[in-house]
Design brief:
Helices cover 27% and strands 34% of the residues. The protein has helices at 15-30, 44-55, 109-122; strands at residues 35-37, 58-59, 67-81, 88-98, 103-107, 132-141, 144-151. Strands 1, 2, 3, 4, 5, 6 and 7 form a 7-stranded mixed β-sheet that branches. The longest helix has 16 residues, at 15-30.
Length: 157
Amino acid sequence: MSETTVSTDLAILDASDSTALSTEIANLATGRAAFYSSLKGDDFATKIATVEAMTNSVPVKENLNRTINVKNVIVQSVPMADRATGAINDQPRIILLDADGTAFHAISGGLWRSVQNIINIVGEPSTWPAPLPLHIVSVKGGQGDFYTAKIGEAPKK
């Protein structure tokens, strides 16, 4: 017979994590999640399209310097550990939906600022006369590389 070992280690959540989790669970019931989507509509098909974009997206880092004809944008808050301190902080996960239906995602402060600037100046994607061509580039910064969006077609290689 083989022996089975049972772990007695316990995962311990501090009070702030419990509070944050409780708040997130409560927000599910009220529909007040930290979330933005330019996909408009309360119909089931729009809701499913939003979930599919969020769960079936491909990483931006594998598609740098590629033209993305952005038709819609989704931003969700996700908890991430700070690399230096280990502290958990909410970060924006940006999902860019191409006109062809492909969704691209990244967790990037630089890309988040680019998306904020575009929406604040150009307006919500639902108001654009056509998809907006963007290409995402990696830029070297003082505290490491970051992504930013550039308007227009990606340069030909």
